[in-house]
Every structure is written in C-alpha cells, then in structure tokens.
Design brief:
single chain; alpha/beta; Rossmann fold; two-stranded antiparallel sheet; binds adenosine-5'-triphosphate; ATP binding; Rossmann-like_a/b/a_fold; tRNA_thiolation_TtcA_Ctu1; TilS/TtcA_N
C-alpha cells in the first residue's frame, strides 16, 4: 500500500510528486538509471561532467542531499559512476537539517536508507534564523544561509567540491527570471568558484538533465521525495519561479524547441550586438570599444 499520508508532509502550496507504483527493489531502481533512462538521464550526466570538466582526478566531492527528487537522483548517479569504473574521485553525502518537521526528517532518513545512500545529516538553524532576521521575505536569506552551511560542512569534511542538484529547467528558468524580472542577461553556471570558501568549487552535474525525466524516474521508482520542505514561507510568498516555469511551458506550444533556444542563448552571446556588460564588478558599454 502506498502511504497516502506522506503527501500531507509537504508545505502547503507545493506540488506533490505521487509515485506511480510501490517502491521498486533497489537493484531495479539502480538498473533503470543506466537502462531505461540511459539517454535522458545517464548520458546527460556524463556529458555535463565531460563538457564542463566537473570532476578532476583526486577530487573529494560533497554531494548535497536535500531529500528532494533532484538530489536523490544525483546521489544515485554518483554511485553509478563509481560502480562503472570511474574511481578517480571520492564522495561524501551530506544533508543539512535546517529545522525540518520531524516527519520530513524521517522521510529523508528513510529514503536515503532505502536507496543505500550513506548520508551524514547535520543540523543548522537556518529556518528559524532566516525567519527572525528577514521577517516576511526569508527566502533569499535562507538560500544564502543554506549555501553557507553546505560549503562549511564540505570544507570540514576535507572536500574541494560541493555538488548541487540543479537541473536543465532550473538553468533556463534562471535565465528567464533574470531577463524578465531583473533586466539582466545572466544564467546559472555548471560550476563556479566559491567566493567565501577558499579552494572550494560548486558543481552542478544535473545541468543538462530535463526535470520531466527526473520526475518520471522518481515516480516510477515508487519514491516519495521531499517536496519543498520549507516550514517558513510555504504559500505566503508567491514564487515567480513557478510563473516562469508555466510561461516556458506555454511558449513551447508556439515556439519549437524554445527551452533549448533559451539554453543556447547563454552559449551564443554575440558580443558585437550587446549594449553593455559587467565583469569583475566593472561595467563596460559598447561605446567604450566603439572607436577602437
Ligand atoms: N537541506 C539541504 N541539505 C543538503 N543539500 C541541500 C539542502 N537544501 C538544498 N540542497 C542542495 O541544493 C540544491 C538546490 O536546492 P533547492 O532547494 O533549489 O532544491 P530543489 O530544486 O527542490 O532540488 P531537490 O529536488 O534536490 O530538493 C539541492 O538539489 C541540493 O543539492
């Protein structure tokens, strides 16, 4: 029997991913990653690692698991990579408990145990502090604090990289969010150097994987992932990201491959047709180079 009560654990207003079936045996779940989802998940994972040079020999990678669908898949992908012979790196699986409801914490632990992910869970008072410090708009503060708490733990474990579960749709939604809401052209990069933590890099190995395949994989596996376990903002603050998600979905009806076009736009910026840009905090106008 599927435990229907688990659908009530998510914050109000969050989309709940209901499994299609009972939890499948672990061996079947693992096999499906490299068989059923070879094209849309496994190959894309490998491609991102190669194309963006995400892993180097001797890396020690902290794989950050929130317990949501994306990071659970990411953990399994790293394990598969290791099993398939790439052992030039080490991984540590970390989960930060920002003040989860006990039921959510239990779901996280149960999923990791079932999926054989040896996760280290540690506490950080993120929810409470973000709410106290940032009142009605805790999301930005919470995101920053969460990132800091993850980098800190990775560093403590002697890791030089922190892997996050952002995927293809997160990337194009970020591009569109910046364009439509912030008036800037800026995407989410597959890797970047941490500003406040020396010799630490952030990597995003799911960069090329479309969210719909992650959802399908999780639902077919019979796993109930955490769905936005936020205890603070929940439905209180309208989330522009959901609106952008819908917008892109609607655009797909009129423009062929619009998602890929948004993605490619950040690969094909034509510097000869741009009014201005910023680098290292310095603003430049096309006029600065016009007469040269
Ligand atoms: N509490 C946490 N502990 C460990 N890692 C986390 C935590 N919260 C977020 N992360 C990491 O940051 C990534 C992005 O966080 P975000 O809250 O945007 O997750 P998401 O889009 O819901 O993804 P997921 O499905 O993995 O939760 C996650 O995929 C995960 O790698």
């Amino acid at each position: 029997m599927l435990d229907k009560d688990k659908s009530n654990i998510a914050g109000e207003g969050c989309e709940v991913l209901v499994p299609f079936n009972e939890r499948k045996p672990l061996a079947d779940i693992e096999r499906s990653i490299i068989k059923t989802y070879r094209k849309h998940i496994w190959s894309k994972f490998i491609k991102a690692i190669k194309e963006y040079e995400l892993i180097q020999d001797g890396d020690k990678i902290a794989v950050a698991i929130s317990g949501g669908k994306d990071s659970l898949l990411m953990a399994k992908l790293f394990q598969e990579l290791y099993k398939n012979g790439n052992q030039n790196f080490e991984v540590q699986f970390i989960a930060m408990d920002p003040g989860y409801h006990p039921d959510i914490r239990e779901l996280l632990e149960d999923n990791c145990k079932y999926l054989n992910i040896p996760v280290q869970i540690y506490e950080a008072d993120v929810f409470k502090v973000a709410q106290k410090m940032a009142g009605d708009y805790p999301c930005y503060m919470c995101a920053r604090m969460r990132r800091g708490a993850l980098y800190g733990k990775a560093k403590e474990l002697g890791c030089n990289k922190l892997a996050l579960g952002h995927h293809f749709n997160d990337v194009i939604e970020t591009t569109m969010l910046n364009l439509l809401c912030a008036g800037s052209f800026k995407t989410m990069l597959p890797k970047l150097k941490a500003q406040n933590f020396e010799n630490m890099e952030l990597i995003r190995p799911l960069y090329l994987i479309e969210e719909k395949y992650i959802q399908r994989f999780i639902q077919n596996s019979g796993i109930w992932p955490l769905n936005c376990a936020c205890m603070v903002a929940a439905k209180r603050i309208g989330n522009k990201r959901y609106e952008i998600k819908d917008l892109i979905e609607n655009l797909k009806g009129t423009f062929t491959n619009v998602d890929m076009s948004i993605f490619r736009a950040a690969e094909n910026v034509n510097m000869e047709a741009i009014l201005g840009w910023q680098k290292d905090g310095k603003k430049t106008s096309f006029l600065d180079e016009y007469d040269q």
